[in-house]
Amino acid sequence: MKNLNFSVDEQKCIHCGQCIKDCMPSVLEFNENKIPKAANPERCIACGHCFSVCPVGAISIFDKKSDDAEQIYSQNPDMILNLIKSRRSCRQYKNENVSAEIINKLKNMLKWSPTGCNYHGLHFSIIDNNEVMDEFRNHVNTKILSALQNKSMKLITEKFSRYTKGFINGEDIIFRGAPHMIVVSNSIKAPCAKEDAIIALSYFELYAQSLGLGTCWCGYGQTCMKLFPELSEYLEIPEGYQSEYVMLFGYRNVNYCRTTEPFDVQITTAEKGGFEKLSATTTIKRYFWNFIR
Ligand SMILES: Cc1cc2nc3c(=O)[nH]c(=O)nc-3n(C[C@H](O)[C@H](O)[C@H](O)COP(=O)(O)O)c2cc1C
């Protein structure tokens, strides 16, 4: 953990104690003058809640000053819901590179997704050039086609044999002709390795679509990351890390004009007194089910 450099502008501090109350690992305490101090700095998880919550901007931490921080705007919930509803998986892309400006915007948002224990250990491998993407897709497609033709890798035959014709015809079954790809990997030691990665790509997807791009979760790409270890090396995934998921992106060559109606999800609402109504047999069954999973 780098030095906290926690300081409080005593002229500004109104002694409200919000920073202390909102500090999850209890790093902060009032000193004898009712000014917050970092009494247990070793516990800090660098979440920045103290800095963010201070109503008068009196706190500075990790050399960040309130004057440098971005304002928080109130969001339009209808627009956010519309973005969620209108998100689509894109499988038709323009064969051109996304502008460096947009790629930079995407790169800069990646650090903002939440991670379990505030671990922030994610690594992102980005292919931001369609010629590199072509090299990558050709390598993978050639290997899969050869394994399918020679029946040399059981896993490949299991996963991809139904697409054999497509691979022979040169169809890009896995990467859907996308000019770009992002692979998120995490340390095998991360407390929430998979969860952190999926959250990051979910944020990425929505932001990318708000910028007018198409995206597609690429489960087949993730399968390939596991099948072919050289891909991790090519993408410079660090030692001790493993690929968690893959997402394609690029300028869309298709427009979606309206939202659809997805299947309903199951929702239940817990009620007070529910424990008294539990059936003993179901509880035991559930216990064993959790245990054997
Ligand atoms: C975890 C996950 C993995 C997916 N993998 C692929 C994939 O490998 N190839 C593909 O074309 N689509 C893939 N998809 C996209 C789904 O097939 C897609 O969500 C579905 O067709 C519904 O379309 P929509 O996302 O536009 O609502 C994946 C989606 C998710 C959430």
Q: What keyword list fits this structure?
A:
293 residues, 11 helices, four-stranded antiparallel beta sheet, two-stranded antiparallel sheet, binds flavin mononucleotide, NADH Oxidase, alpha+beta, 8 strands
How is this structure best described in words?
- The structure is a single chain.
- This protein is α+β, with helices and mostly antiparallel strands.
- The chain folds into two domains: 7-68, Alpha-Beta Plaits (2-Layer Sandwich); 80-251, NADH Oxidase.
- Helix content is 37%, strand content 13%.
- The chain has eleven helices and eight strands.
- The chain has helices spanning 18-21, 49-53, 77-86, 100-109, 130-150, 154-160, 164-168, 193-210, 219-227, 229-234, 280-292, and strands at 7-8, 28-30, 36-38, 59-60, 123-127, 180-187, 213-217, 241-251.
- It has a four-stranded antiparallel beta sheet with strand order 5-6-8-7, with helices on both faces. A two-stranded antiparallel ribbon has the order 1-4. The chain has a two-stranded antiparallel sheet with strand order 2-3.
- A hairpin with a 5-residue loop joins strand 2 and strand 3.
- The radius of gyration is 24 Å and the shape is globular.
- The two termini are 36 Å apart.
- The chain binds flavin mononucleotide.
- Flavin mononucleotide binds next to strand 7 and helix 9.
